[in-house]
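Design job #97: recover the sequence.
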């Protein structure tokens, strides 16, 4: 059996940066599933999501494997401000099909100008399996903030829609965030890019979503964009024991992780041996040995039953074996204890 644990990357934010707007990046998702062994060799491609880049005086880049960049803003005085990038998904695929996707977190809204201490729209969280939306942006002096991008949805197999733009100042042109894309074959969806603003004196920009998007806003009245939506998660229908939760690895500003563990199944063997020739009218003994092949996993305690068929001309007087429960009339022996690799346990007729 193969168990895969995938953690999507967290969205970036501008923690520790001298920025006008502070906003939290979203948390990636953790997805766990178990796949049955394949009868033929299988090659898997593993992509580990990367966190986005912080956005402050410029747009933050999106993280590896589907994270999108934050929006940007430029003022007439040459000042540039931007949102943080969304976190990428962590995924495992084989051939042209995805086996598992753990969505990344959306990027937090951002903007420059030190010391203002405004709290903007936070990034949405990766999907469990559907993702959450980014938070609404901040505003001052009558501005209308931009909306957060919606999270991607595995339930409806759609990417997140972009957040609405903030109300622009008369000298500004603000745009909505772009939509995220869905899964295609073995490729994860890409978050929508944060919206842009031009000719603004001061403007914040929302972060790009890991599966949704955001936008930006404003002018002198100040209305920055919302946070990016998170990316949704997915597991192939053949997965069992599947669970979705918030990642403890892919938190804000942190990369994702993929762990694959293997359990080799037990491999039972059986042999029948005897030492001397059998002579008519005399007792003879032969041994049936049940073993577990070297390198195999221990048996799980499920009962193992051995039944023998005597050759013509032979009759059984007894059947026994240490740890076995044997029935003479049916020449059957059963045991329920586990057998480690290379173990051999003989019942003897």
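Job complete. Output follows.
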């Amino acid at each position: 059996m193969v168990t895969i644990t995938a953690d999507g990357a967290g969205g970036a934010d501008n923690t520790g940066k001298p920025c006008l707007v502070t906003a939290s990046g979203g948390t990636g998702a953790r997805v766990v599933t178990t796949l049955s062994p394949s009868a033929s060799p299988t090659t898997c491609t593993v992509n580990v999501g990367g966190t986005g880049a912080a956005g402050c005086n410029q747009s933050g880049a999106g993280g590896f494997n589907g994270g999108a960049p934050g929006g940007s803003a430029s003022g007439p005085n040459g000042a540039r401000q931007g949102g943080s990038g969304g976190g990428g998904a962590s995924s495992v695929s084989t051939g042209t099909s995805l086996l598992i996707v753990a969505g990344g977190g959306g990027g937090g809204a951002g903007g420059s100008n030190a010391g203002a201490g405004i709290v903007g729209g936070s990034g949405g969280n990766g999907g469990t399996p559907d993702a959450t939306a980014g938070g609404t942006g901040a505003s001052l002096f009558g501005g209308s903030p931009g909306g957060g991008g919606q999270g991607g949805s595995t339930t409806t197999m759609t990417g997140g829609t972009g957040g609405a733009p903030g109300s622009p100042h008369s000298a500004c042109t603000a745009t909505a965030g772009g939509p995220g894309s869905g899964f295609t074959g073995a490729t994860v969806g890409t978050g929508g890019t944060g919206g842009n603003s031009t000719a603004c004196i001061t403007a914040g920009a929302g972060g790009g979503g890991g599966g949704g998007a955001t936008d930006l806003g404003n002018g002198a009245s100040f209305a920055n964009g919302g946070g990016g939506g998170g990316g949704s998660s997915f597991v192939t229908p053949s997965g069992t024991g599947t669970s979705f939760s918030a990642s403890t690895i892919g938190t804000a500003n942190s990369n994702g992780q993929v762990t694959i563990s293997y359990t080799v199944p037990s491999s039972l063997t059986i042999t029948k041996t005897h030492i001397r020739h059998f002579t008519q009218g005399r007792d003879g003994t032969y041994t049936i040995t049940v073993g577990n092949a070297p390198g195999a996993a221990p048996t799980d305690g499920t009962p193992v039953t051995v039944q023998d068929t005597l050759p013509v001309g032979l009759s059984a007087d007894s059947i026994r074996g240490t740890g076995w429960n044997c029935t003479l009339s049916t020449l059957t022996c059963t045991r329920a204890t586990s057998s480690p690799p290379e173990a051999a346990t003989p019942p003897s007729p």
